[in-house]
Write a structure and sequence with these properties.
Helix content: 25-40%
Protein name: branched-chain-amino-acid transaminase
GO molecular function: transaminase activity
Number of domains: 2
CATH topology of the largest domain: D-amino Acid Aminotransferase, Chain A, domain 1
Distance between the termini: 27 Å
CATH class of the largest domain: Alpha Beta
CATH superfamily of the largest domain: Aminotransferase class 4, branched-chain amino acid transferase, N-terminal domain
Largest sheet: 9 strands, mixed
Structural class: alpha+beta
Shape: globular
Cofactor: pyridoxal 5'-phosphate
Order of helices and strands: EHEEHEEEHHEEEHEEEEHEHEEEHE
InterPro entries: Aminotrans_IV, Aminotransferase-like, B_amino_transII, BCAT-like_C, BCAT-like_N, BCAT_family
Oligomer: single chain
Family: Belongs to the class-IV pyridoxal-phosphate-dependent aminotransferase family.
């Protein structure tokens, strides 16, 4: 199926939807990933029918065969993006077409069908059309959007499935930082790998995150907030769920480049803003030695992590077996964070066409 004209969504309203008072209470302090809106999107794909049966339906359990391919062969991908409430009441998303394209790249790597960009964007609008009231207005609050797709064909056999389901759910999210942005400590994982060359590191698939859970637990045991991985050549890769950026004393921003790293939309946007300010940007391999010696010599003036949830998080310490290196805290990362979030929330003019209105 190659026709990407608009889908005709069937809408079934949730008869047990939260009342305005209940919703307001939940939005006072939604936390992250524990409160969900009243509805979800569901689109089917089959080898014969292509993308079909688009629906907005009540949020609830998914019926799945015990033999569903995803449960045995892990054909599963997902994305994460946010909806922002602007001062004029409008609801916007930030570069959602980039999430759609990344979902396609992930699908390609996992031998899954690629959801057209137009269908991805329409799914966001269809959900906002019924659940727009769930987009919070509080400082730093957003509606987190989680599109995901998995193999649902019931069979036991190692091959790409012939049936898939695309879903979109949404969860109101509070401000990532309470009481201000705080630097985090990072544990260097040298015994575990998140991904390998030729593997699925550049795809946003659950298996990559499952592989990070044990080393993340190790980081907690070492008193650290996050874990950083090395690639097969011993170069810095990324954190469990965030990209990393080094700021040199001459203002150059350096970020690791590898086929095992997820192509971060937040990272790319921050680097584009930095380039517009006149900063040089380098995407290349960064060794652990370069990192540690650069901090020791003062050549590296700042290190920060970045991703959808936190946008920018300063790194205050790098710990590993036998060392504990304090990291320099700079101002550039947080300055770029402010500029980016001002664009996302409509406080600064969007001159790059990064915002897409979802409620119009």
């Amino acid at each position: 199926m190659t026709d990407t004209t608009a889908l005709d969504f069937a809408v079934t309203r949730n008869l047990a939807a939260a009342s305005p008072a209940q919703r307001a209470q939940l939005l006072e302090d939604p936390g992250f990933g524990t409160v969900f809106t009243d509805h979800m999107v569901d689109i089917c794909w089959s080898e014969k029918g292509g993308w079909h049966r688009p629906r907005v339906q009540p949020y609830g359990p998914i019926s799945l065969s015990p033999a569903a391919a995803v449960l045995h062969y892990a054909q599963e991908i997902f994305e994460g993006l946010k909806a922002y409430r602007h001062a004029d009441g409008g609801i916007y998303s930030f570069r959602p077409e980039q999430n759609a394209l990344r979902l396609q790249r992930s699908a390609r790597r996992l031998a899954m069908p690629e959801l057209p960009v137009e269908y991805f964007l329409q799914s966001l609008r269809e959900l906002i059309a019924v659940d727009g009231a769930w987009v919070p207005e509080g400082e730093g609050q957003t509606l987190y959007l989680r599109p995901f797709m998995f193999a649902k064909e019931a069979f036991l056999g190692v091959r790409p499935a012939h049936k898939y389901a695309y879903y979109l759910i949404a969860s109101p999210a509070g401000s990532y930082f309470t009481g201000g942005v705080k630097p985090v400590s990072i544990w260097l994982s040298e015994n575990y790998a998140r991904a390998a060359k030729g593997g699925t590191g550049a795809a946003k698939t659950g298996g990559n995150y499952a592989a990070s859970l044990l080393p993340q637990s190790e980081a907690y045991e070492q008193g650290c907030d996050q874990v950083v991985f090395l690639d097969a050549d011993g170069n810095i890769e990324e954190l469990g769920g965030m990209n990393i950026v080094f700021v040199k004393k001459d203002g150059t921003l350096v970020t690791p480049a590898s086929e095992t790293i997820l192509d971060g939309i937040t990272r790319n946007s921050l680097l584009e803003l930095a380039e517009a300010r006149g900063h040089a940007v380098e995407r290349r391999a960064v060794s652990l030695r370069e990192w540690r010696e650069g901090v020791a010599s003062g050549d590296i003036a700042e290190v920060f992590a970045c991703g959808t949830a936190a946008v920018v998080t300063p790194i205050g310490a790098l710990k590993g077996a036998g060392f504990d290196d304090a990291q320099p805290i700079g101002e550039l990362g947080l300055s770029l964070r402010q500029e980016l979030t001002d664009i996302q929330y409509g406080r600064r003019e969007d001159t790059r066409g990064w915002l897409t209105r979802l409620d119009a």
